[in-house]
Amino acid sequence: MIILGAGTAGTMMANHLHHHLNAGEWEIDVIDEREEHYYQPGYLFLPFDIYEPEDIIKPIRDFIPKGVNLINEQIDRIMPKEQYVSMVNGDRLQYDLLIIATGAKIAPDETEGMQGEEWQKSVFDFYTFEGALALRNKLREWKGGKLVVHITEMPIKCPVAPLEFAFLADSYFKNKHMRDKVEITFVTPLSGAFTKPKATAALEHLLEQKQIHIESDFAIESVDNENKTIVDYGGRVVPFDLLVTVPTNKGDELIARSGMGDDLNFVPTHKATLQSKDWPNIFVLGDATNIAASKAGSVAHFEAEILTDNIMRYVSGEPLKEEFDGHANCFIETGNGKALLIDFNYTHEPVEGSFPFPGVGPLRLLKESRINHMGKLAFRWIYWNMLLKGTHIPFVSTTMQEAGKSFD
Amino acid sequence: MERTIAGVTIQVNEEGYLTDFSQWSKQVGNDLALEANITMSPRHWEVIDYIQTEFKNEVPLSIRKIGKSGVVDIKEFYQLFPMAPLKTASKIAGIPKPASCI
Question: Nearest CA of chain B to the CA of A45: how many Å?
């Protein structure tokens, strides 16, 4: 059994499978070229001096169970027909079963001018550790002006993170007594703040309250470094003094080298079983898939529980279960120590209600509250101590619950 | 809900997208375009034809994909269907609003 990638999804699978597979029959390898695990939700807090770098980086090895081989080498490509993984150092690693958990990365080079001379001077990303840290340093000394928070194109990892960034920026500048010197604009290729109508209405109300202007249906063509503007294909122009952009997100290059991805290097995957559409002994989870679920840690967590069951069925020759429902559960930081919580799946949009206990809570869905914010901060502990290790999170079901929610 | 356009009755959702592609005709598309202030030209129809083919093949559409289709580049796509071209073109083509991944 080979797992490609020791990020959130790959690490969870290593832990689950180590528990479930017979150690006498199976050898489990996990391959990742990095030695450090980054807590990606922390990238949102780093720029605002809420988290320090040491809160979000730990050694990968600490989370891989003993008995699983961690291989710190670069992968060249997958040879699915021949059933081996070819390494940059020339090694060939044969597999019976392969799990792809190679995630998604930003690709700023997809947009003309994005990595121009203003890159990391007045144009920043916060989807990488380096980007978030450079942005923190910039924000510490920034005197104000036009802040533009921008999404290049969908899909992106954690689709609500750019909105959260705008909300947190509002409270950050308020606390620094300079909110009146900053104009915040949220620029999105979508027709509104979010993709689902009820959450969009709630979030747009918050944007208005916080005096954050929204420019929707904006498909960026280029970043004009000289005039400090972003330009869309329709000729619309948005000026900035500080641009915080989420570049195009793509699957890993190794997927393209292996000829296994779509035009964004995401792997065609069956949306309910998580089996590769092309190769029965390959399974895919997390950000690496092309399924229409959010690219988020909570999704990878729910997928990992279902995929473990399916892999056990696959190895004992039973039919796979079509169980994954696209379940996502996300806290949305709204600034000033408050947050929203949304819970949804492929077919049900986020609505109001209570979570995880129907009618009780204590968390409130789609409503701002302090306890939701506490939940988001507590989540970092849960992530390092339970989630990565594959421990089931009490009371949170793998598929979405309909009870306790107000659907029309 | 029901509405009448180009002399026929069609089923649309609250945003005006056809809910049954079999009710679409070129005349329906033409009149939907006029409502969006677009006068259809042969070039417009080539793009609509491509979008409908992809829809029938169950290929999810995105602006990026259309830009790489070889049928039209993104710049021209915006010139043909200004503002939100994929949404406008989908409405004229009688197919559902493109589901942007979340």
Answer: 22
Domains of chain A: 2-103+252-315 (3.50.50.60), 108-248 (3.50.50.60), 333-387 (no CATH)
What's the pTM value of the predicted model, to 2 decimals? 0.91
Q: State the distance between the two ends of chain A, measured CA to CA, in whole angstroms.
A: 45
Facing B99 at nearest CB: one of A191, A233, A292: A292
> Residues B9-57: pLDDT tens digits?
999 998 899 999 999 999 999 999 999 999 999 999 999 999 999 999 8
- Quick one: closest CA in B to A290, which residue? B101
| Element spanning A15, H or E | helix A8-20
- Whether B77 and B1 have beta carbons less than 8 Å apart is answered as no
SS (H, E, C) A251-289: ECHHHHHCCCCCCCCCECECCCCCEECCCCCEEECHHHE
Chain A 57-86, CB below 8 Å of chain B: which residues? none
Say yes or no for a CB contact (<8 Å) between B100 and A234: no
Buried b / exposed e across A180-194, counting CB within 10 Å, b at 16+? eebbbbbbbbbebbb
